[in-house]
Amino acid sequence: MRLTLCTASITDNLTTTMKAVFILLLTLGTAQAQHDRIVSGKISDAMTGMGLEGATVVLLERAGKGIHTDVEGRFTLTLPADKLTLLVSHLGYATQQVLLPISWDEVIHVRLKPVDNQLNEVVVVDPLSASCPNSIRRAKPTA
Description:
about 140 residues, three-stranded mixed beta sheet, four-stranded antiparallel beta sheet, alpha+beta, elongated, 9 strands, 1 helix
């Protein structure tokens, strides 16, 4: 009895299998990309309409996913296509939550309202003589 091995058949099967795996991986990558969405917008002062540079836009559901606005108050984030909440804040303004519906790809405009946060007291410490109680100066705000 003689055993003949046909290498052409094995090579064809291997090539077909590799193509199928490649197409499967490509499809999975495309499916993942379809589940992301780009959310962009502008954060501005509610009184003046001016863009707020350095405003923070954070995804509430995922810690660490966020960005600061540019000089004109604009931002762009890539987010999963889920129902999400953005937390928008800036020093001197009331923090605002923005609910994004599922699969929503549009530009949003958030207008933050200024808040009046006055300091009750300012403490200035001289770092060179911090151990000396006389180095602490307290100042009350003037009206």
